[in-house]
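Margin note from the TA: students keep mixing up input and output lines. Inputs are the sequences; the output is the structure of the whole complex. Example:
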Amino acid sequence: MRGGGIIIAENFYLIRKGLIALLESLDTPLRIHEAADWESTRDLMVRYSVNMIIINPELIPDAKTELHSLKMSHHIITLMAIDKGNLSDNIKKHFDEIISISGNKSELITRLRNFIGQKKREGEKTNNTGLSIRETDILKLVARGYTNQEIADQLFISTHTVISHRKNIVSKLGIKTVAGLTVYALLNNLINMDDAR
Amino acid sequence: MITGSMKMADVIHLDHSLLPIINRFGIQLGFGDKDVEEICREKNVNIDFFLEILNIFHDPNYFPKDHLQEFDMELILTYLEKTHEFYLEYEVPKIESLINELISSCEIRKENIYLLRNFFMNYKEELTTHIKREDETVYPYIRQLVKEVQIEKISESLKAQMNEYPIEAFAVEHDNVEEKLFDLKNIIIKYLPPPKNSNLCNFILFRLFELEKDLNDHARLEDVILIDKVKELEKGAKELLKLKK
């Protein structure tokens, strides 16, 4: 796949800009986004198609759970941790690559080049709007105004599963609100006018 | 960085999207060769505040929180009210009429654009309610708070409002309005079947982008600066109430 996006998430301005300068020197086709906190990182992930993230793990509140669920829902994203010398192995194991800020220029460049050169694992196509059949079923119900509980009851699954499907729908479609999802469903004839209250 | 010694005309050449912001300070086109400082002096505009507002709008990475918090509350409120006026009286009605124009220019698949308009009207209503509440309830409360803390005399009505609906409660209500606008953009970019008049459609999209950027900056001023300042005042008011007992 050509291009795609990479997020540099780091709160220290100098480190963030430094990493960006190094990446740019590699002449990558990746579109570079920057974030100084976790909230804006998440926001960028919804907004743009992102396949790589270089992040300071300290920015992530409750890093272990967040990283785990990130891997589950976005298996197409590869992750690199910014190590300031204080990362535990417990955190490191969630990342595909680690970059240490104490490295010299050639070490940093090599790390980054390896990282952005990584191929995504086989068989995982980036089909941004391709919802699975299950997700489409759930979208139809959401668009018709059903609550998570009602959807769970109707499909015999837990509300937890419904919520996790909904998160995936939002990030695949780039539409966050129920009203917006309804418009999407109508435009694509998934439901008809009478269904949308 | 935009500075006081720059010519105002050069500021616009550098970033023309600043024009509506500059207008909010009562400064209109026809700058001649005057620099920012001169114009601010003429128009009686606080130049420190003016420059900070322009710079945070111009550079998304620039946000001097501590400095912004030092500004007078009235200065901030007046600016925020002016931006409200711009949204409700100009920008949002303008986008609405453009969408109507798009509908009348369509011969087939009109119903898609009607969907879009419904969604937009929904958004407009939410935004209007939100802004009205700020103008009619929240800002007057803040002004009263400033006044009474200053004269060190807290009235019963203020006390009641502070307990019932402190600024904290208002702070959580911001998100949904932003999300709707984001969705509206994505629906046009990704999912709406291309209408016949694509130039008009592009134009609508550009305006939505501008509106979003403006609203985000506005929300950041409120969420980060205004709310913190009001929390401080509420703390001060509570201290005063304790002393009285």
